[in-house]
Amino acid sequence: MSFRKKLLLLFAATVLLCVAVISASVYSTMRRSFEQANQDRANAIAAQFRSEFQRRGLDVVRKIESVAAGETVQHMALEINRGVTDSGEYVSAAHTLAGQQQLDFLEVVDNRGTILSSAQWQAKFGYPEAAIPQAAAAPTGAFLKREELPGGATLGLFALRTARVGEQPLYVIGGERLDQGFLSTLDIPTGTRVLLYQNLDTKWNPKSLFDLNGPAAGADKIAPLVAQVRGTLQESQSVIHWTSDPADAEVFHAIPLTGPIFSATNRTVTNQQLMAVLLVGSSRRPLIELQRQVVSTAVLVGGAGILVAVLASLWFAARVTRPVVSLAEAARRVAAGDLGAKVAVESSDELGELAASFNRMTEDLLQQKDRTLQAERVAAWRELARRLAHELKNPLFPLQVTVENLMRAKQKSPEMFEEVFHEGTATLLAEINNLKTIIGRFSEFSRMPQPQRRPTQVNDVVRSVLRVFHAQLQNSESPNNDKNQITVRTELDEALPEISADPDLLHRALQNLVLNAIDAMPQGGELAIRTTPLGDRIELSVSDTGSGLTQEECGRLFTPYYTTKQHGTGLGLAIVQSVVSDHGGKISVESTKEKGTTFRIELPREPQPWQTGQN
Description:
By secondary structure, the protein is α+β, with helices and mostly antiparallel strands. It is 48% helix and 22% strand.
C-alpha cells in the first residue's frame, strides 16, 4: 500500500473515530444485553428442567420403593433365599408391577445381577443387568440410564432399590422415558425453543434429536455443537444459521445431562457419562434488526467524514510522499537481497532521521550476515567432527584390548600365542573394516554429486536394485517360502513415463530404502515397491511389514546422523533425502508401530526452472 493511501486511511480513521466509537459502544451494549437475556432465558429453562427432573426423579424413587416393599417382590426375595431355583414363574411379574405404578421400565434382578423379570422386554429374562452395583456404590437418587428395547435404545429416568429378605438381596430398577413428553412440562418463553438429544449412539444420530413435536428438523446443523459437548462434557454455546439471512439464525445453549457408568465386571460405578444434551435456542432476529439500523446510521455519517479525509490527505501527502517513496524503494532492494542499498538524507527532521537509521540498519545487516555465515560454518564443522569422533571411538576400544591381549599372551603364555594371535587378528580386521565403513559413509555423504540428468525409466532402476538384493529376497511366486525370508512384491506401472533424472543417484537412494526395509524385517516379511504416474510427476513407494516407527522417530528420520538401528551412522536416509531434493522431488514416511513403514517419493518428470543451471 502506498504512503498516499496510508495518509488517506489515517485521516479517514481520524474523522470517523467519533462515529466508530459511538457505534461500537451502542453495538456492544446492545449485543451484551441480548446475550445476557439469552443466557437468562437459557438458565431459567435449565432451572425448570432440573426442577422437573428432580420432581420426576423423586416420583420414580417413590414408585420403585413401593415396588421393592410390595408383597410380590418380597415374596420373590423370600423364595430365592429359600433356594428355589425355578425363577420362570416371575417372568411376567415386572410387567404387572410396572402397570400398577405407571412405569415405562421395571426389572427385578437377583443378587448376582441376573434379570428375573423385565416389564419392557421379557426376553431379557436370564441376562445380566450391568446397572446393579454393590450396595456401597449404588446411587440413592434418580439417575439417567440407557435402556435397550426391542425397537432400539431409549433414554430413561431410573431409580434403584433393594429388597432384603434374608442374606440374598433382590434389586428393583425402573423408571420413566425421557422424551418430548418430558419437554412439554416446561414453560418456554416466546422466541425460544427447547430440544433434547439422547446420546444413545457412539456417532451422531439425527433421529435422537427431538423437540415438543417429535424429531427436530435441521438436526445436522446442530451436530457440531452436540459433538463439542460430547467431547468436553461442558456447557457450550453456538450460533446456528438456518438460511443465508442472519436474522433467521438462533443462539443455542447446550447443557450436558450425565448419568453413571456401571461396571458389569466388579459391579461398581466407575464414572459419569453423557446421557443427553438439553439445547435451548433463542432467535437472533431482534438483535440483527437493531444491528442493521446502527450500521446504516454509521455509514451515512461516515460518508461525509471520508470526503473530508480525502481532501486533507491529498494536501498532506504532496509534502511528504517523495522521501517516503525513496525509502520504500530502498526497502524493496534490501528485501530482494541488496544489503548495500542506501537512502539519501535530504533533511534533518523525522524523515531525515528515518533515512539515516535505515542506512545504519543496512550496514548492521551486512555485518550480521557475515558473522552468521561464519558461525554456521564453525558450528557445522564442530558437529561433523563430534559425530565422526563418536563413530570412530567405538571400534578403537576393541582394537586396543586386542593388541593388549596379544602382548600379554606373548609374555605370559607363548605356547597359546598362536591361538590368541589368530583370534586377535580376526578381531583387528573386523574392527578395521568397521572403521573403513564409517569413513566411507561420511565421505559419501560429504561429496554427494549433482544429478547428471538424462531420460530415465524408474521401473528399470527398481529392477536393477532388486537384482542387487536377489540373494536376500525371494520372488512372491517362489514355492519354497521360508518364514525368515522376505517376499518381494512389485507393482510397476508399465505406462510409467520417463523422467529427467540421474539413474545412478536414484539407484543409490532406492538401494538405501530397500536395505532399511530388509533390516526392519529380521524375521521375514513382505517388501512392496510400487510406481504410479501422477500427472507431471511420478510416485515411487517402498513398503515393509517390519517393526515400524513412532511418530517422534518419523519426524527425525531424515536428520543427518540420527538412526534407530543399533549399528549405523544415520546417513543413509539423509543421503536419500539429498538425492530426492536435488531432483526437485519430495519424500515422506508413513509408519505404524509393529505394522510396518512406507516411504513415498514424488519426482517431477522435468527439472524445475531453478534446477536447470545445475547441470
